[in-house]
Amino acid sequence: MSVSPHSEHESAPAPTGPVNLERRQLMLGSAGLLATAGLVGFSPLARAQGAPLPDYVGWKNADALIMHSASTLETKRDAIGRGILTPSDQLFVRNNLPAPDSSIMNDTEGWEVQIEGVNNPRALSLAELKRIGVETVVSVLQCSGNGRAFFPHGASGTPWTVGAAGCVAWTGVPLREVVRELGGVVDGMNYLTGTGGETIPAGLDPKSVMVERSVPLAALEQAMLVWEMNDAPLPLAHGGPVRLVIPGYYGVNNVKYVRRLAFTAGQTDANIQASGYRVREVGVPGSPDQPSMWEMPVKSWVTSPLTSATAGRSLIYGVAFGGVHGLARVEVSVDGGNRWAEARFLGPDLGRFAWRPFVLATELAPGEYRLVSRATDDRGQVQPEERTDNERGYGHNGWKDHGVTVTVA
Ligand SMILES: Nc1nc2c(c(=O)[nH]1)N[C@H]1C(S)=C(S)[C@@H](COP(=O)(O)O)O[C@H]1N2
Ligand SMILES: [Mo]
Fold first, then answer.
1. What pLDDT, in 10s, does the model give residues 226-279?
2. Fewer CB atoms < 10 Å away: N or C end of the chain?
3. Where are the extended beta strands (E) located within 230-347?
4. Ligand 1, closest atom to CA 196?
5. High-pLDDT (> 70) share of the chain, %
6. Which ligand is nearest to the CA of 244?
7. Cα-to-centroid distance, 222 and ligand 1 (Å)
8. What is the pLDDT of residues 31-88, one digit of tens each?
9. How many CB atoms lie within 10 A of CB 59?
10. The predicted structure's pLDDT at residue 125
11. What are the extents of the domains in the chain?
């Protein structure tokens, strides 16, 4: 768990032995800090895999998830299959801080979001938000570190492969309608800053651990304050009672249990924004002048088959999305990218922020195959072949690393 002021809100791999444990303690700077903050049981210092799911995610389908730590659950690659929407009990979970106490779900209608940087700033309860307007938007939720496991330099943070991503139907009020209700955004504001409702552990500098993210004001076009996920009340694990959702933007910008939403001139100076989630070369520390993890680029991966298949006619499945843009096409190669065939989208188009399952029917003779997929968005941006190496292993959308080797017999 990244509770150290020196960390960047991306937890390191769960330790596998005494050597790693020592290394991990060194990286944390002070394991005693965790103890002081009462977070020992929450940290990845405890071995996660095989342990029962923690209470706040006890309702999840453990068989569909890889538990990296109590705060980092990944959807297994084969669980996604042909999914148009990711079932809530299979969706990944990622918490930078312990989730708030479940008692915050006792009075969801009374949960208040403080809106600032508008001409008539005030707190709005969920009950009031629900009277302003409602919309349902389908969007991909993807952690910035999804695909980190494929970086060869051993980027620190959770070693996600493909499953720190899912496609969710969110229901809530478009933020621009809330803003209109409150007299519009104050002149000169450039960012939309959301603050999470976690309690900051005693003894820690709030700025070092709080989840407070700023995104460019342009995101007001699609930003939502949501209270439902996949047609059910938003569970605590995914940010209930109310969550900020910025369709097309990386996971971290989708602030859970949002308690304050401010239009601001500059970006927040919280670590998670100032130095965390910044793309830079390997070995370079994070700083505000580097690109922030905001808009997601085009990406796809194969979901089936993953290891073996029966010779003859085969259906190759996967998912593809364009981030902030819609999708134009997705191609599949069974020979590691030498020859490509256009796959067919499966099911309805749920809008530009949603992913689309795809399928390619092909004949496979016995042998070994390298299956890869390559998506193109509606602006003509093609998923690149290679990853762009960077210190924290962010934003991997290279198609080559995401391939799978399948034995056909
Ligand atoms: N308040 C709050 N919001 C948060 C986080 C958090 O720790 N606290 N984690 C962020 C990160 S890094 C990701 S990837 C997504 C994960 O969303 P999920 O847990 O609903 O899958 O939530 C984001 N919003
Ligand atoms: Mo994330």
1. 999 999 999 999 999 999 999 999 999 999 999 999 999 999 999 999 999 999
2. C
3. 232-233, 243-245, 258-264, 299-304, 308-309, 312-321, 327-333, 341-342, 344-345
4. 1
5. 88
6. 1
7. 18
8. 333 333 434 334 443 445 568 999 999 999 999 999 999 999 999 999 988 889 999 9
9. 11
10. 98
11. 18-274, 299-408
Structure tokens at 171: 């229901």
What length is written for the chain? 409
- Is the Cα dihedral 144, 145, 148, 154 positive or negative? positive
* Distance separating alpha carbons of residues 95 and 72, to the nearest angstrom: 7
Given phi > 0 = left and psi -120 to 50 = alpha, else beta, which region is 391? alpha
Residue 9 amino acid letter: H
126 phi and psi, to 5 degrees? -60, -40
CATH placement of domain 299-408 = 2.60.40.650
18-274 belongs to which CATH class?
A: alpha beta
Shortest-distance Cα residue to atom 19 of ligand 1: 93
Residue with token string 């999470």: 196
DSSP conformation letters of 19-33: HHHHHHHHHHS-HHH
For residue 81, what pLDDT is reported? 80
Q: Give me 264's structure tokens.
A: 């601001």
CA distances from 75 to 79, 126, 358 (A): 7, 30, 19
Cα–Cα distance for residue pair 136/227, rounded to 1 Å:
10
Ligand 1: atom nearest CA of 197 is: 1
Gap between the terminal Cα atoms of the chain = 43
Task: Label the pairing between strands 308-309 and 404-408.
Answer: parallel
Q: What is each CA distance from 52 to 62, 67, 226, in whole angstroms?
A: 8, 9, 29
Tell me: pLDDT of 321 over 90: yes
Structure tokens at 368: 């070994």
Pick from 105, 67, 395, 71: nearest CA to 209: 71
